[in-house]
Amino acid sequence: MPFYSGDELATVYDDALDEGWGLVASNIAEPNVMMGLMEGAAQADSDLLMQLSGGACSFAGNGDPVAGLKAMGTYIEVIAEQYDVGVFLNMDHQTDMEFIETQVDLDIPSSIMIDASHESFEENVAQSKQVVDMIDDAGRDILVEAELGRIKGVEDEIVSEEAFYTDPEEAVEFVDRTGCDLLAISVGTQHGVAKGKNLELRPDIAQDIRQELRDHGLDTPLVLHGSSGILPEQLQQMLQYGICKVNKDTRYQYEYTRTLFDLYRAHTDELVPPEGVEDDRDGFYNAVEWSPNKDHFDPRVGGRLVRERIADVYGDLAEIAGSAGRSHYA
Question: For 165-181, how does the pLDDT look when each residue is reduced to its tens digit (9 = 90+)?
Answer without folding.
Answer: 899 999 999 999 999 99
